[in-house]
Amino acid sequence: MVDPAVRSNFVIMSPLIDVVVEVRGGSLEFLEKWRPVLQPHHIIVIQNCPGTLRIPSGFDVATYSLDDAQRTLGDKCWCLAQEGGRLSRSYGYLMSKKRFIFTIGE
Description:
Layout: H1 4-13, E1 17-23, H2 35-38, E2 42-47, E3 60-64, H3 66-73, E4 81-82, E5 86-87, H4 90-95, E6 100-105
Parallel strand pairs: 1-2, 1-6, 2-3
Antiparallel strand pairs: 4-5
């Protein structure tokens, strides 16, 4: 459980923070363990797996794939593509509109 004092600091700062997550599996269920800390924030997901993600309800999530980066960056997309056709989490940093970015791995 998150200390209420810590939780309130995250809530106060939520307009300033985006959270970037790179996902290689098909689920974001691990977010449940982080719900008290992450729920107030916008979460940018870099999806490096085929199919539909399982996203727990109650989170503000935007998902991006390599196809999205190709549409946005065109022939410059190569700089964010990784081995095996995966998209770098750096694309999430590019898509963020917040002052601070917190990044976590699954």
